[in-house]
C-alpha cells in the first residue's frame, strides 16, 4: 500500500528539524570540529654573583675613592710614613659574598722606571717614591698594573673596603710644597 506523500514527508521534516536544532545548539556535527590544545613554556632568570658600585655613572667612572694622605713633615726629614684609603673611602661597593673581586692600580700620573712617585707641581726633579700595598705592614705590595684580590664575605659584603695602603720614606732635602699623584683603580669580578 502506498502512503500519501505528505505522510512520508512529515517524519522526515521532524528529523530534519531535530537535526537543525541539534546543530544550531552546538551539538551534533559541530562538536567534533571544536578542539582545545594547551602547551607549556619555561621562563627563567639567572642571577650571577657580582658587585654594585653605588653612584656609578653611565661612563663607568665611580668618582674618587678617597685620599692616601702621608701627612706633613719637614723638608729635611728622612722619616717613613704610612697611609691608607680604607677609612676615607668615598664610594660604596656592595658585592655578593664570595665573589672573586680583583683590583688593579695603574702607575699614576708620575710613574717612572716601574715606580710610583708623588711630584711637586710640574717639576719631574721634585719627586718622592712611594709603594702601594694590600696590608698595613706593606708586606704585600701592589705592582703597577698588577692585580690584587679583595676579600668579600658576609660580614663586609654591603660595604666592601678596598685594601689600599701606602708607604714612603722621605729622602731629606726636599723643596717645600705639596707633592701629589693621581691613581686609577680598576675593579673586575
- Rg over alpha carbons: 40 Å
Count of the separate structural domains: 1
What is the architecture at the second tier of CATH?
A: Sandwich
> So what's the CATH class?
Mainly Beta
Q: Kindly report the CATH topology.
A: Immunoglobulin-like
Beta-strand portion reads: 15-25%
Helix content: 10-25%
Q: What low-confidence regions span 5 or more consecutive residues with pLDDT below 50?
A: none
Shape: rod-shaped
Q: Please identify the oligomeric state.
A: single chain
Report the end-to-end length measured between terminal Cα atoms.
Answer: 102 Å
CATH superfamily: Fimbrial-type adhesion domain
Structure in words:
This protein is of the alpha+beta class and 189 residues long. It has a single domain (49-189), classed as Immunoglobulin-like, CATH 2.60.40.1090. The chain contains 1 helix and 10 strands. It has one helix spanning 5-24, and strands spanning 51-53, 80-84, 93-95, 101-105, 116-120, 127-133, 147-150, 165-169, 179-180, 185-188. The strands form 3 sheets. A 5-stranded antiparallel beta sheet has the order 2-8-6-5-9, with no helix packed on it. It has a 3-stranded antiparallel beta sheet with strand order 7-4-10, with no helix packed on it. Strand 5 (116-120) and strand 6 form a beta hairpin. The relative contact order is 0.20.
